[in-house]
Design goal:
By secondary structure, this protein is mostly helical. The chain contains six helices and no strands. This is DUF4267 domain-containing protein.
């Protein structure tokens, strides 16, 4: 199998990064970090946008990296970022239900990207 699973995961990652850069509420609401009126506090929006910039960069790297070690490194960076998110959001968010949900989503994306990397012959070179 070629690089398309990793490229697809990279495109999805980049799209999500752009989404939360533009609308931090896309991440704030499921994490329980929005205010009662649905608005996102300025400091929270800033940090979510930083995650969005990271995800955009990771996704673009997965899309643009040459096959082999560069693509493997881009994929590993994405997986490690997701696993870090799963641990941090899964243990530090104020609401227990949001912790479980955020950990499951972040861990799921990390697992998906890891499987995409393992399935891609282009990453294993």
């Amino acid at each position: 199998m070629g690089a398309w699973p990793v490229r697809w995961a990279g495109a999805a990652t980049a799209a999500y990064g752009v989404g939360i850069l533009v609308r931090p509420a896309l991440m704030a609401r499921p994490c329980g970090l929005d205010d009662e009126d649905g608005s996102v506090p300025v400091a929270t929006a800033l940090l979510i946008r930083a995650v969005g910039a990271r995800d955009l960069a990771n996704g673009l790297a997965m899309l643009a990296a040459k096959e082999g070690s560069a693509l493997r490194a881009a994929t590993v960076c994405r997986v490690v970022s997701d696993l870090g998110d799963a641990v941090l959001f899964g243990t530090q968010l104020p609401d227990p239900a949001a912790r479980r949900k955020a950990a499951a989503v972040a861990g799921g994306w990390g697992a998906l990207c890891a499987v995409a990397g393992l399935a891609s012959r282009s990453v294993r070179k």
